[in-house]
Amino acid sequence: MSFSVDGIEYKGYSVIKYGWEFPKLYHNYQVELPKKGKCNIWITYVGTPEWRSDYSVEVKTRFYITEFLDGQDALEFKKVPKLHLVK
Question: Looking at CB atoms within 10 Å, which of 29, 45, 72, 73 has the fewest?
Answer without folding.
Answer: 72
